[in-house]
Structure formats: C-alpha cells, structure tokens
C-alpha cells in the first residue's frame, strides 16, 4: 500500500513539474510526448506465439520510461527492461511488431477531472512499431531512464538475463478529444517537447 501511495505522489509531482496542464487538443504531437513522459507503464500488444493462442492478439503490462522524471527528462523513446523468460518477449522473438498503449488514466489527472478511462478527455496514445534491443551506446541511457522511475528493477534476479530494449515507433495515434483519433508522424513526435 505504501508503494501505491508513493507512486501516486510521484505521478502528481511529475504532472506538477511539467506545469500540470496538459497540451491543448490541437497539439497532438506534444500531447503524445506529454502522455508518454507522465506514464510509468503501458499495455504492450503482440501476436502470440504461445500454444493455443498462436497468431492471436495478446496484451501484457510493462513498466516503461522515456527518461527520468521532470519536465526536461523525456526523450520520447519508450524504453523497457525485458527478459526472454517473459511470454510476450517470446512472442516478439517470432514477430517483433507490437503496439503500445499509454493513458493518463494511470495518473491522478483523469480521476481529478472525473474522466472515465475510456473518455477521450482522459488522453491515451497508441504507438505501433517494433521492439528492438538497444545497442551498447544506448544502454546507459535506457538504464538511467528505467531505473530512475523503477528502482526495483536494479535488484531483479540476474539469472533472468535482463536486457534493455526500446519501442521503435513507426505510427502514432492520439485520442485526447472528441471527434476521433489524430495521426502523428514519428518526425512530428520527436520534434516537440512534452
């Protein structure tokens, strides 16, 4: 219970540090960056390679980070800490394509405004692309991004052969207002700050 309280306080501080105000609906690329940077986890969907589910969509929750908390810490790159023992990672070994959904529903923002998680005003972002292992030159950045938000990761069992990976974004959809999804290109996304 103390961990949940700490997470809520941390998320509230993150929102306060980023100005507390979310970007306006007409700034979809900035909204996408804002939501990712203020979320600590997301739902990763793969095509299952598991017996009995082969070829079916399969979603799983993963901790993630695009950088240390604070208004200037986000790179926009969703980093993950993975092990081949995890069933979704086994799916990715067969087909690295995936989608990743992050939502402000995990922050205090939507509850404060009494927005249901499915309400478009409780912004969520859907990324499509693939999961790739980071190279040695990027591993330090990924480690700092993840361990700054998820310090428990550093003590996870070494014999699980953890590795750093990133979500290589090819398509972005933003749902943050009424009227349907907005499409943001990766170029637009990476050119703005949250």
TrEMBL record:
Keywords: Glycoprotein, Secreted, Signal. It comes from the Eukaryota. Its main location: secreted. One of its GO terms (cellular component) is endomembrane system. Pfam families: CREG_beta-barrel (PF13883). Residues 1-21 form the signal peptide. Residues 23-191 form the CREG-like beta-barrel domain. It is found in: Secreted. The keyword Signal applies. InterPro entries: CREG, CREG_beta-barrel, Split_barrel_FMN-bd. Belongs to the CREG family. This is CREG1 protein. It comes from Phaetusa simplex.
